[in-house]
Structure formats: C-alpha cells, structure tokens
Amino acid sequence: MTNETGDRELVLTRLMDAPPDKVYRASTEPELVKQWFAPAPWTIARAEMDVRPGGASLVVMRSPEGNEMPCPGVFLEVVPNRRLVFTDAYTGAWQPSAKPFMTVIVTFEDEGGKTRYTARALHWTVDDREAHEKMGFHQGWGQCADQLAAVAARI
Amino acid sequence: MTNETGDRELVLTRLMDAPPDKVYRASTEPELVKQWFAPAPWTIARAEMDVRPGGASLVVMRSPEGNEMPCPGVFLEVVPNRRLVFTDAYTGAWQPSAKPFMTVIVTFEDEGGKTRYTARALHWTVDDREAHEKMGFHQGWGQCADQLAAVAARI
Predict the structure, then answer these.
(1) Which of B1, B40, B60, B148 sits at 20 to 30 Å (Cα–Cα) from A6?
(2) Euclidean distance between CA atoms A91 and A78, whole angstroms
(3) How far is A122 from chain B (nearest CA, A)?
C-alpha cells in the first residue's frame, strides 16, 4: 500500500477509546480542533476549516512566547467518519502554496467501538521527510494524537 | 481572481465552435483525448483517465522519433461540462510525484452555443512558470487547443 512512498512517509497510529464518529468530529470541528491540534504548551490561536474536497483550512499555532505560525492547507478528500486527506501544497482551491511539503491521509477505523486512528504524512522529497522527522514528528504528532483522544473521549 | 498567483500562472483561452458538453467530452474521453492532447507531429501513445476527484490520469506522449514521455497526474475537481482541475503533484490518490510542477484549471463556458475554453496553469514557483513559458507553453498549448476545437466540432 505504501511501498511507492515508503522512504518519503511518516506514520503515526493510535487506538483511541472513542468511536470513529467522535474522533472524526474532534478532527473537523474548529472549536474541538483548537483543543488538541498543537502540542501543549503551544496553543491554537485560530482554526477555520471548510471540510469538503477543495475546501480551505487555516490553523494558526501559537508558541508559549506568543509567536504565531499559520498552517494553511486544503482538503483533498473527505469521507465523514472514515477518512480525511489534506495538503499544504495549496492555500485554497487551487492556489499553489509557497512550498508543497506534505499530504496527510488520516483514517478512522472502528475496532470494537474504539478507533484505530492512523495519520500518514507523505512528503514530496526524502529530505523533507527527514527534516520532518528531525523536527520531532513522532513526539509532536504523538502528543497531539493523545490530546485528540482525550477530546474525543469526553464529547 | 488570479492576483495571488499572477507571476506563477500561464493562461490560454479560445472561443471554440462547439458547445461545452462536446468540448468537455473531447477533454475527458481517452479515445478523443488521444486525437489532440499532443501538438502534432507528436502523438499520444496511451491515455487513461479516471475522471473524478482523486482519480488518476496517465497520458503518454510520443515524439516523431518514437520517444515516449509519460505525463501522470490526478484530478482534483470535476464538474461535468463546466470545469476540470488536475495536477502533476500526484501520480495517484495521493502519491506525491517526483516534482510538483503545475495545477491546471480548465473551464468550459457557454458563449451563445460556442465554448469559451480557458486553461490556467498555476505553478509552484516563478522559475517553473518561466521554464514552462520557454518550453513553448503558448505555442504548444495553443496548437493543442486548436486540435481540441477541431475534435469537438466534429463529434
């Protein structure tokens, strides 16, 4: 399934103690996304998401020092409660971004009432994958996934 | 509409003597696409198109000397008889290509029974836009558009 992009890909998976529709809701409703999308002590200053193919997404992360980092993107594929695909290659439909860095495929699979959450980050280059790994992908996305699980478990 | 990407964009437009549904058909049915998608004396050796968002497209051009140039891509947006968006940033849903070069937005507008055909090529960098222009975008795509108009007029 992922052989073609194996060396350009990073994967994170978690079994979450909430059903897929709740994990999906927490992944797509801005007020919920704000609660987990940045690894604490970073926060989300702003989250806007037009959840449909071609819809724009803008999440602005804020560092503990107050510096803001905007993360614009576009949804490519939306299958409610099942699957989300988005990329930073566009800032809107279909404005090329300054730098196409990655495409993220998120799947929400039912496992006996829990959710197998899997996020695959596909990069255009091996260098970008390596840089992302060194930036702390596993730790950062892992922490966010744990925060997401907590949000999904309480809604 | 295009200010944001003006210096990364190339545009071609033609008024074609066929209605939008025929120009659209000639743009999406492989057997018709083969008749115009390469500027003669280049030909199309192979055309496969899964015309839906996330669907893959593979067109292989053949030079007069017999050299083949594969052009893989993916459709991002499909509005029958109105609008097609595709990119070479992916080779399938959602495998990053070796080099995201451009996204093409094609619109088919009715003008009194004829079709205003507009193809906008949006590049990720100014360098790529310039390279595309030097490769002969206006002449090459212009010739293909004339060939497309001829196919659409006779189907």
Answers:
(1) B60
(2) 17
(3) 7
